């Protein structure tokens, strides 16, 4: 069974709803100290909006800067994946993680054994 809730019946809703800023005369009905605070808050919000615009401009500039730095890496990666270019020995060494050399040697031994099995030597 679903119970619907009448929000207007809950305490405080009518009071909050009646102070909605789009309703005519709302600000005029507020006491002067509250109107003063609202004006100060509006000023702070404008300053915040200016800072937000600056932030977005800086984010766009950083994204552009790093896109330019990433582009050669992306191109090189695409060349490797597509087989257009083979990596240098230095690049391969730089890409190895700790313990990977031992694993690679074991893989080479396994490959040799597999080749010998195929040839019928084992």
From TrEMBL:
User: What's a single GO BP term from this record?
Assistant: nucleosome assembly
Listed Acidic residues bias regions? 99-113
Question: Region entry Disordered: which residue ranges?
Answer: 80-122
Provide the transmembrane region boundaries. Answer: none
Pfam families for this protein: NAP
- Spell out the coiled coil positions from the record: none
Gene3D superfamilies for this protein: 1.20.5.1500
InterPro entries attached to this UniProt entry: NAP-like_sf, NAP_family
List cellular component terms (GO). nucleus
Q: Where is the signal peptide?
A: none
Top-level taxonomic group? Eukaryota
Which family, according to the similarity comment?
Belongs to the nucleosome assembly protein (NAP) family.
The protein's name in its UniProt record = Uncharacterized protein
Organism, per UniProt?
Modicella reniformis
């Amino acid at each position: 069974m679903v119970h619907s809730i009448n929000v207007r019946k809950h305490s405080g809703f009518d009071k909050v709803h009646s102070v909605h800023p789009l309703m005519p005369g709302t600000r005029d009905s507020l006491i002067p100290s509250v109107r003063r605070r609202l004006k100060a808050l509006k000023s702070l919000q404008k300053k915040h909006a200016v800072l937000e615009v600056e932030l977005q401009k800086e984010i766009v500039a950083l994204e552009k800067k790093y896109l330019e730095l990433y582009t050669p890496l992306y191109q090189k990666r695409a060349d490797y994946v597509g087989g257009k270019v083979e990596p240098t020995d230095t690049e391969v060494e730089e890409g190895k993680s700790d313990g990977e050399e031992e694993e690679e040697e074991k893989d080479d031994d396994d490959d040799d054994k597999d080749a010998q099995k195929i040839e019928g030597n084992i």
